């Protein structure tokens, strides 16, 4: 009997300790502290990328013979836990219905595809009228994602808030009237529909999204304003209906100043709009229009942008839109602190046209840019920024 009593006490202590640990973990998320990611380890680093010559674009990997190609309307997310690039999205328009997730590992310079794309015959509506595809594997429709794809370290997942507005299959499946937010779990490699507490999810077309690590909030922005998904990840909340862009803009989070910066727009612009979020998710923030000084930056739309956490600046690669059509693209740094553009000499690229595929790789402290199209191979470029 004494042995049973001792065992019972030990179990209670273990349970209580586990409970306290669980409470502490939950409170660290809900407090809005910056998420703690896995620190880069030696096996996640590529010596060649670490030794790059600074301030020039260097070709890291040109992949020929892949069963897929980079598509202009697709987007990219950076898995900050594993240090990998994740591409999802399609041009559709009847040309290519790619709803696969493609992953690039900079450490090994290899591409992998997580699963096989869904046949067109599987596109349908579920009993609730939501657009779904796939057989035994639930998949979203192939769609333009633009900048409406972001990695969420809270859920270790990709969050896709895009709308398959240009997929012609919708004419054949009129009952698919609902296009939800999709969540792709990176541990299990499966998709699920975000339930949003039974409420309609906000939808975005040719819009933008980004992650705020300080508040642990996913933010999506487009014509229907700014929406936020708080640390509980239970429901989208509208912060403001204020909007200053049409389509084809790109947004990233400035972790130095704790604001979002929006670049580009449908009618071409070099202006920068800054959105400062409120402390409480779903509460109205403030917008500020910036007209940068410094080197003349061409007005453009749908160009790649990423924020450098190490240097505290943005990198962007707009096309030189005059003369038209563009014959090159130039690389600029934007510093919110000084509100200045600085052109990087010798870092011009062939015109990128529509391209949302650039991230900052914290493992190697470099920018990674993906190019290619139906006729050119998928190519990964890297730029190591040195502001000295």
Can you name the CATH architecture of the largest domain?
6 Propeller
Overall strand count: 27
Shape designation: globular
Number of helices: 2
Query: Briefly, what CATH class of the largest domain?
Result: Mainly Beta
- Tell me the domain tally: 2
**Overall pLDDT score:** 90
Q: Tell me the strand percentage band.
A: 25-35%
Tell me roughly what share of residues is in helical segments: under 10%
What's the multimeric state? single chain
Order of helices and strands: HHEEEEEEEEEEEEEEEEEEEEEEEEEEE
Let me know the largest β-sheet: 5 strands, mixed
Q: Given the helix and strand composition, which structural class is it? A: mainly beta
Strand order, main sheet: write it out: 20-24-23-22-21
Distance between the termini: 73 Å
**Poorly predicted spans:** 1-39
Backbone CA Rg = 22 Å
> In CATH, what is the homologous superfamily of the largest domain?
Kelch-type beta propeller
What does this molecule look like?
This protein has 388 residues and is mostly beta strands. The chain folds into two domains: 1-29; 42-383, Kelch-type beta propeller (Neuraminidase, 6 Propeller), CATH 2.120.10. It contains two helices and 27 strands. It has helices at residues 2-30, 47-50; strands at residues 58-63, 75-79, 84-88, 102-105, 110-113, 124-125, 131-132, 149-152, 157-160, 182-185, 190-193, 208-212, 217-222, 225-229, 236-240, 250-254, 259-263, 272-276, 286-290, 293-294, 305-308, 313-316, 332-335, 340-343, 358-361, 366-371, 378-383. The strands form seven sheets. It has a five-stranded mixed sheet with strand order 20-24-23-22-21, with no helix packed on it. Strands 1-27-26-25 form a four-stranded antiparallel sheet, with no helix packed on it. A hairpin with an 8-residue loop joins strand 17 and strand 18. The chain is globular, with a radius of gyration of 22 Å. The model is unreliable at 1-39 (pLDDT under 50).
């Amino acid at each position: 009997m004494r042995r049973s009593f001792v065992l019972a006490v030990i179990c209670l202590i273990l349970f209580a300790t586990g409970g306290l640990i669980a409470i502490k973990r939950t409170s660290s998320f809900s407090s809005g502290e910056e998420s703690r990611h896995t620190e880069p380890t030696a096996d996640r680093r590529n010596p060649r990328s670490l030794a790059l010559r600074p301030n020039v674009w260097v070709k890291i990997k040109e992949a020929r013979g892949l069963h897929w190609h980079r598509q202009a309307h697709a987007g990219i997310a950076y898995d900050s836990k594993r240090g990998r690039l994740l591409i999802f999205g399609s041009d559709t328009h009847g040309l290519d219905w790619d709803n696969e997730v493609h992953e690039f590992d900079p450490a090994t310079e290899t591409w992998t595809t997580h699963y096989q794309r869904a046949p067109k015959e599987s596109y349908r509506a579920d009993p609730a009228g939501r657009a779904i595809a796939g057989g035994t594997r639930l998949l979203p429709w192939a769609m333009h994602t633009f900048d409406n794809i972001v990695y969420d370290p809270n859920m270790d997942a990709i969050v896709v808030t895009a709308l398959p507005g240009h997929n012609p299959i919708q004419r054949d499946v009129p009952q698919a009237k609902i296009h939800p937010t999709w969540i792709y779990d990176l541990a299990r490699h499966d998709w699920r529909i975000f339930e949003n507490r039974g409420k309609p999810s906000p939808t975005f077309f040719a819009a933008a999204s980004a992650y705020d690590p300080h508040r642990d909030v996913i933010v999506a922005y487009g014509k229907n304003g700014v929406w936020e998904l708080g640390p509980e990840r239970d429901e989208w909340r509208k912060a403001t209906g204020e909007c200053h862009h049409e389509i084809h803009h790109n947004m990233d989070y400035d972790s130095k100043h704790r604001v979002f910066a929006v670049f580009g727009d449908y009618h071409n612009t070099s202006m920068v709009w800054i959105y400062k979020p409120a402390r409480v998710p779903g509460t109205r923030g403030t917008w500020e229009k910036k007209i940068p000084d410094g080197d003349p930056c061409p007005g453009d739309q749908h160009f790649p942008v990423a924020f450098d956490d190490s240097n505290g600046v943005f990198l962007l690669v707009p096309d030189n839109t005059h003369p038209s059509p563009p014959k090159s693209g130039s690389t600029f740094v934007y510093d919110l602190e000084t509100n200045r553009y600085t052109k990087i000499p010798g870092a011009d690229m062939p015109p990128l046209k529509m391209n949302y595929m650039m991230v900052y790789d914290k493992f190697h402290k470099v920018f990674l840019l993906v190019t290619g199209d139906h006729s050119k191979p998928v190519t990964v470029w890297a730029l190591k920024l040195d502001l000295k």
